[in-house]
């Protein structure tokens, strides 16, 4: 079982006096929903710090009122409107140069300012591009907007124009069923990232999308959190804490 492979690797790390860091990013939040409540309760039960990538354009007081009840929760900037401006066969992208760069950057600045003002101490100045894509020509401009970090998907590439804190394991089967991926495949992927001969990551990022989770995703998350909660070979950290210590 792939789950057992993950446990064996964590046990080996613990025996060596080492730990791997996990972090959790959930995308597309706008307002409180039953699905978000399920995620918040699950994360709270297992003391998993959560970073919500919030879409600025349509969020407001309702989500703020819920977020302030979660002291360990971070809010990051998920583009502006999560609208695709690419045309086929291009992959979906909001933060590309299909529009003038100034227009894209102005939207990002508006999103940054709005979420900073709404969420206060919960706000993390990290950009999470919708669909995990941003045109590389925009990256040198992000610091001037106030961003201190960028989070996309896949192994971090260096050198980079700013701090990177990526996600590496996506629970959703976007190209297939549209539901949750097979739990054994997900555990196998995590085990591969943790393999002794793999290039170590600063932090292994798990990517979720609460609005489209099915029962398979919730079952997988419960199993993963049960396995890793208080295991001496790993620790769950907030994005803020990881960026502050790395």
UniProtKB/TrEMBL annotation:
One of its GO terms (biological process) is carbohydrate metabolic process. InterPro entries: CE4_u4-like (IPR049591), Glyco_hydro/deAcase_b/a-brl (IPR011330), NODB_dom (IPR002509). It comes from the Bacteria. Residues 30-148 form the NodB homology domain. One of its GO terms (molecular function) is hydrolase activity, acting on carbon-nitrogen (but not peptide) bonds. Is involved in generating a small heat-stable compound (Nod), an acylated oligomer of N-acetylglucosamine, that stimulates mitosis in various plant protoplasts. Belongs to the polysaccharide deacetylase family. This is Chitooligosaccharide deacetylase. It comes from Allorhizobium terrae.
């Amino acid at each position: 079982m792939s789950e057992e492979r993950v446990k064996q690797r964590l046990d080996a790390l613990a025996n060596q006096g080492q730990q791997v860091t996990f972090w959790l990013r959930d995308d597309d939040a706008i307002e409180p929903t039953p699905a978000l409540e399920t995620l918040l309760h699950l994360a709270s039960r297992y003391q998993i710090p959560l970073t919500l990538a919030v879409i600025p354009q349509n969020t407001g007081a309702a989500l703020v009122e819920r977020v302030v009840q979660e002291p360990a929760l971070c809010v990051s900037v998920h583009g502006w409107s999560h609208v695709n401006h690419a045309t086929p066969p291009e992959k979906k992208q909001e933060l590309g140069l299909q529009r003038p760069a100034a227009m894209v950057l102005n939207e990002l600045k508006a999103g940054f300012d709005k979420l900073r003002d709404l969420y206060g101490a919960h706000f993390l100045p990290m950009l999470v591009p919708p669909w995990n894509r941003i045109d590389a020509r925009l990256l040198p401009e992000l610091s001037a907007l106030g961003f201190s970090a960028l989070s996309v998907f896949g192994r971090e590439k260096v050198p980079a124009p700013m701090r990177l804190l990526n996600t590496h394991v996506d629970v959703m089967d976007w190209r297939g069923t549209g539901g949750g991926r097979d739990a054994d495949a997900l555990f196998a992927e995590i085990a591969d990232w943790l393999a002794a001969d793999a290039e170590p990551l600063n932090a292994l990022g798990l990517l979720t999308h609460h609005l489209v989770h099915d029962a398979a995703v919730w079952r997988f998350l419960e199993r993963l959190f049960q396995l890793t909660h208080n295991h001496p070979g790993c620790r769950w950290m907030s994005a803020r804490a990881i960026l502050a210590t790395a």
